[in-house]
Amino acid sequence: MVDANRPLPQPTELTQPYWSAANENRLVMQCCDACGRWQFYPRPFCLHCESDQIRWKDVSGRGTIYTFTINYRAPNPFMKARLPYAVAVVDLDEGVRMVANIVNADPTDLGIGKRVRVAFERVTEDIALPQFELER
């Protein structure tokens, strides 16, 4: 059962492919067929060349921590039970950045440049959240 205090994503027509893939434990990003560049977060056109030839492609789910913070204050009642928790900006190997929690790690083990890999947290039958954990 889902905790009623937990904020959940609300997929839109544009973001549904991302959430559908996450629900299958796959991480996907948009890639432009015209210029070959990756982008995240989802948009209806390429940020680099403005083409509308955007496709969703699987990515490795591996990257490095660009920066992070350890939260000791909960922004909502659900997160209170998870304190402290880490939020990081992750540079994926494909060249895009995304923000996600770092899970299954002691906050003192985190560091800029540390390698991470995607891990999916199942929260409902239809929603799995991409998170990251340290590579061992």
Question: Care to describe what's here?
Answer:
The radius of gyration is 16 Å and the shape is globular. The model has no long low-confidence stretch (mean pLDDT 95). It starts with 15 loop residues before the first helix and ends with a strand. The strands form 2 sheets. A 5-stranded antiparallel β-sheet has the order 6-5-4-7-8. It has a 3-stranded antiparallel β-sheet with strand order 2-1-3. It has a single domain, classed as OB fold (Dihydrolipoamide Acetyltransferase, E2P) (Beta Barrel). It is mainly β and 136 residues long. Helices cover 9% and strands 38% of the residues.
List keywords for this structure.
five-stranded antiparallel sheet, mainly beta, 8 strands, OB fold (Dihydrolipoamide Acetyltransferase, E2P), single chain
CA distance, first residue to last residue: 31 Å
Number of helices: 2
Order of helices and strands: HEEEEHEEEE
**CA radius of gyration:** 16 Å
When the domains are counted, the total is: 1
Largest sheet: 5 strands, antiparallel
CATH architectural designation = Beta Barrel
Describe the protein's topology:
Blueprint: H1 16-23, E1 28-32, E2 38-39, E3 54-58, E4 62-71, H2 77-80, E5 85-92, E6 97-102, E7 115-122, E8 128-134
Antiparallel strand pairs: 1-2, 1-3, 4-5, 4-7, 5-6, 7-8
